[in-house]
């Protein structure tokens, strides 16, 4: 019987494992020189190296409660062929999963985000980052596998709570004036963001100065600045200048 529930550790790790398998399949399919649209300047080899390094870095952080002195030790041999590079990606992810399966989710840890330094951040963050970069790898080499709506909705929530919260604290950015409502149309998920008294995130149906509605995958990939055919399924409402200002804070 499948006992995984959305948001549980095992749910995240199951998604992480499945996405690593799909990512590795895209690497084997290649070509490794294919450009990655979501990561300008990178090809599939560079994307894979990044993902594998992040998995090894995150394993160290989660296991030790502190970052390693350098990520250089984790970089793959630049001469690996596609099969060897895919195997390297899979082995790093397997070691990561072994650690994430046993860490104390409510215990102290280290991570670079402006939220509580608790172990539960790691399974979610690694599953969500792998999901988007798996999509990148597939998009660069062929057809993409849809991101499960529940996973995509959770990814939106994590993006807003971790990435957007961090983005609005950065210097030299123009902060939006007005609130933005996001609404998934194919699964549960609604959010209202505002900056009235610092960054505020409300998970509820609420009216904003602007809104963006659509399927969870399309919303998630738009927040991550990925250009997809699904962008046509998004429906903007309200003050477009407010929407544009919030989306301008999005990350890659």
Characterization of the model:
Strands 3-2-1-4-5 form a five-stranded mixed β-sheet. The mean pLDDT is 94. By secondary structure, it is an alpha+beta fold. The relative contact order is 0.13. The chain has helices spanning 9-29, 44-64, 82-100, 121-141, 149-167, 216-223, 240-247; strands spanning 180-184, 190-194, 200-202, 210-214, 235-238.
SSE sequence, one letter per element: HHHHHEEEEHEH
Structural class: alpha+beta
Return the average pLDDT rounded to an integer. 94
Report the span from N to C terminus: 37 Å
Low-confidence stretches: none
The DSSP helix count reads 7
Please list the strands of the largest sheet in the order they lie side by side. 3-2-1-4-5
Largest sheet: 5 strands, mixed
User: What is the 3D shape?
Assistant: globular
Tags for this entry?
252 residues, alpha+beta, 5-stranded mixed sheet, 7 helices, 5 strands, 46% helix
Topology:
Layout: H1 9-29, H2 44-64, H3 82-100, H4 121-141, H5 149-167, E1 180-184, E2 190-194, E3 200-202, E4 210-214, H6 216-223, E5 235-238, H7 240-247
Parallel strand pairs: 1-4
Antiparallel strand pairs: 1-2, 2-3, 4-5
């Amino acid at each position: 019987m499948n006992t995984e529930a959305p948001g549980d550790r095992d749910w995240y790790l199951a998604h992480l494992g499945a996405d690593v398998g799909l990512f590795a399949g895209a690497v084997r399919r290649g070509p490794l020189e294919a450009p990655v649209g979501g990561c300008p300047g990178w090809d599939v080899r560079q994307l894979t190296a990044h993902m594998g390094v992040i998995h090894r870095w995150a394993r160290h952080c989660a296991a030790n409660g502190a970052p390693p002195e350098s990520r250089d030790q984790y970089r793959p041999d630049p001469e690996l062929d596609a099969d060897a590079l895919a195997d390297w990606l899979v082995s790093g992810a397997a070691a990561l999963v072994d650690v994430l399966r046993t860490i104390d989710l409510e215990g102290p840890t280290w991570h670079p985000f402006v939220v509580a330094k608790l172990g539960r951040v790691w399974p979610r963050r690694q599953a969500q980052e792998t999901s988007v970069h798996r999509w990148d790898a597939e998009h660069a080499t062929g057809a993409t596998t849809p991101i499960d709506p529940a996973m995509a909705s959770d990814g939106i929530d994590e993006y807003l709570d971790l990435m957007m919260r961090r983005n609005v604290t950065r210097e030299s950015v123009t902060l939006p004036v007005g609130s933005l409502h996001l609404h998934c149309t194919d699964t549960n998920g609604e959010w209202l963001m505002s900056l009235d008294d610092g960054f505020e995130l409300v998970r509820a149906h609420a009216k904003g100065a602007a809104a963006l509605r659509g399927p969870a995958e399309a919303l998630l990939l738009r927040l991550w600045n990925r250009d997809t055919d699904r962008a046509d399924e998004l429906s903007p409402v309200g003050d477009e200048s407010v929407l544009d200002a919030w989306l301008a804070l999005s990350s890659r």
